[in-house]
Amino acid sequence: MVISNAALDRAQLGKLAELTTHAYARSIVPVGTLYDGDTVYAVSAGELKVDLNVVGTLAAQAMSAAIRAAVQSSQLSDEEFLSHCP
């Protein structure tokens, strides 16, 4: 989920969510499988005028960092993970 204090309309929020999903390609290999999750929601509650390209780029960087942190802090062993894969 991306939450912004920018003044973004519905179409811009859709584009922001789309831009944020680029973090998946940067962080997950292979990407696009049934296990990586592929939905990003964007919410805006503010009046700040912004460049959507800048916000989208920053959101993708933040998402990539969050994915990396989640993997690094995981307590799940490789054996346990693999036992849940088909």
Give a short summary of the structure.
This protein has 86 residues and is α+β, with helices and mostly antiparallel strands. The protein has one domain (2-83): arginine biosynthesis bifunctional protein fold, CATH 3.30.2330.10.
Structure characterization notes:
The protein has a single domain, classed as arginine biosynthesis bifunctional protein fold (2-Layer Sandwich), CATH 3.30.2330. With 86 residues, the chain is an alpha+beta fold. Helix 1 crosses helix 3. It has a two-stranded parallel sheet with strand order 1-2. The protein starts with a strand and ends with a helix. The model has no long low-confidence stretch (mean pLDDT 91). It has 4 helices and 2 strands, in the order βααβαα.
Task: Write a concise keyword list for the protein shown above.
86 residues; alpha+beta; arginine biosynthesis bifunctional protein fold; two-stranded parallel ribbon; 4 helices; 51% helix; 14% strand; elongated
Fold blueprint:
Blueprint (H helix, E strand, L loop, with lengths): L1 E5 L3 H11 L1 H6 L14 E7 L3 H21 L5 H6 L3
Helix pairs in contact: 1-3
Summed over residues and divided by their number, the pLDDT gives a mean of: 91
The first-to-last residue Cα distance is: 28 Å
Rounded radius of gyration (Å): 15 Å
CATH superfamily: arginine biosynthesis bifunctional protein suprefamily
Secondary structure category: alpha+beta
Assign the CATH topology. Answer: arginine biosynthesis bifunctional protein fold
Question: What is the molecular shape?
Answer: elongated
Low-pLDDT runs of 5+ residues are none
CATH class: Alpha Beta
What does the main sheet amount to? 2 strands, parallel
Number of strands: 2
